[in-house]
């Protein structure tokens, strides 16, 4: 079962699907696609630890219906967090940035929970606390994915290809608008996104159409930019040249992933990957899997992170990570 948010389909909908293989995707049918962060090992040639879950999941959408809020109880209890390791990672990244090895890297941390009860109720409470356009709940049998993402990775409509990277986070919207640190963080990722789209778009068509737009949500604010271009490439060629998303990797992208692999004690799995719909005509809408939880039988893992730059302060980065946890675990 899959429940998808309005950014994908225009309204929250319930879908029934069956699993397909990549080579079985055909025009004339709708699909839901999930790509793990670990798939970056193929697109960038970076050696990453293998996760427990498949790199790619593809489902053929068979039926649409209205999503009705569930009734059910659940219990979510925090067992473990690695904020000390996260702070140490921030300091190490600042050293590497000072040495010129990196300009920016998106460091992440994981919160481990015990979980009992109805997962759909958890999802529903999550999106009530923080409504976002690209939320979804996916029941894949052995595991479930809950994503409360507000970030668009790629949207293709006709020849128009759009990406909207998010970089810059605060509880205070006015402070965020004034923050030179957050603007610099955003601008570096916009540059990476321009380079990524330049690989698959027509020469001269790639443009930054929005810069430092403010998006307000219930628990926080973000700076969002938009890059777009024109392309005649198909989905898989676009993915192979742009994945992973610029905002959850760093600059330069390949080196950032190599460093992050050494600093992060966890595998990211679907967190920081992408998910969304491939439509009948070949168009698609894919979100960045931020604010994402992965549930197993009696456990849940929720991830947050942030862009680390020369101006980052470890305690402020921890504060931001906890702010991003708030909607999931208030």
Topology (SSEs and partners):
Blueprint: E1 2-4, H1 6-9, E2 13-20, E3 31-35, H2 40-43, E4 56-66, E5 74-81, H3 83-98, E6 104-117, H4 119-129, E7 134-139, E8 144-149, E9 152-157, E10 160-164, E11 166-170, H5 173-178, H6 180-198, E12 207-216, E13 221-230, H7 235-242, E14 250-251, H8 253-263, E15 274-278, E16 284-288, E17 292-295, E18 299-308, H9 314-325
Antiparallel strand pairs: 1-2, 1-7, 2-4, 3-4, 3-15, 5-6, 6-14, 6-18, 7-8, 8-17, 9-10, 9-16, 10-13, 11-13, 12-13, 15-16, 17-18
Helix pairs in contact: 3-9
What do these coordinates show?
- The protein is α+β, with helices and mostly antiparallel strands and 330 residues long.
- It has one domain (2-325): 4-Layer Sandwich (Anthranilate synthase).
- The chain is 28% helix and 37% strand.
- It has helices at residues 6-9, 40-43, 83-98, 119-129, 173-178, 180-198, 235-242, 253-263, 314-325; strands at residues 2-4, 13-20, 31-35, 56-66, 74-81, 104-117, 134-139, 144-149, 152-157, 160-164, 166-170, 207-216, 221-230, 250-251, 274-278, 284-288, 292-295, 299-308.
- The protein has an 18-stranded antiparallel beta sheet that branches.
- Helix 3 (83-98) crosses helix 9.
- The model has no long low-confidence stretch (mean pLDDT 93).
């Amino acid at each position: 079962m899959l429940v998808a948010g309005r950014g994908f389909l225009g309204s929250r909908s319930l879908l029934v699907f069956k699993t397909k293989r990549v080579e079985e995707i055909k025009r004339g049918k709708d699909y839901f696609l999930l790509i793990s962060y670990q798939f970056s090992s193929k697109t960038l040639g970076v050696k990453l630890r293998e996760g427990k879950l498949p790199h790619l999941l593809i489902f053929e959408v068979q039926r649409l219906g209205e999503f009705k809020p569930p009734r059910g109880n659940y219990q979510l209890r925090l067992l473990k967090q690695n904020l000390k390791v996260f702070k140490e990672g921030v300091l190490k990244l600042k050293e590497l940035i000072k040495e010129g090895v990196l300009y920016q890297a998106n460091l992440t941390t994981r919160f481990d929970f015990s979980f009992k009860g109805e997962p759909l109720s958890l999802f529903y409470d999550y999106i009530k606390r923080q409504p976002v356009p690209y939320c979804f709940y996916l029941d894949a049998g052995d595991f479930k994915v809950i994503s409360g993402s507000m970030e668009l990775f790629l949207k293709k409509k006709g020849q128009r290809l759009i990406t909207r990277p998010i970089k810059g986070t605060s509880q205070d919207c006015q402070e965020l608008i004034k923050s030179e640190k957050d603007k610099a963080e955003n601008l570096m990722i916009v540059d990476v996104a321009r380079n990524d789209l330049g690989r698959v778009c027509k020469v001269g068509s790639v443009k930054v159409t929005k810069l430092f737009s403010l998006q307000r949500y219930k628990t926080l604010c973000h700076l969002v930019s938009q890059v777009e271009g024109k392309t005649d490439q198909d989905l898989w060629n676009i993915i192979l040249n742009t994945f992973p998303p610029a905002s959850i990797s760093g600059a330069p992208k390949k080196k950032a992933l190599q460093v992050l692999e050494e600093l992060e004690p966890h595998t990211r799995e679907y967190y920081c990957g992408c998910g969304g719909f491939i439509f009948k005509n070949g168009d698609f809408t894919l979100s960045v899997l931020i604010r994402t939880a992965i549930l197993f039988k009696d456990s849940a893992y929720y991830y947050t992170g942030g862009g680390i730059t020369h101006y980052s302060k470890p305690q402020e980065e921890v504060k931001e990570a906890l702010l991003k946890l708030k909607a999931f675990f208030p």
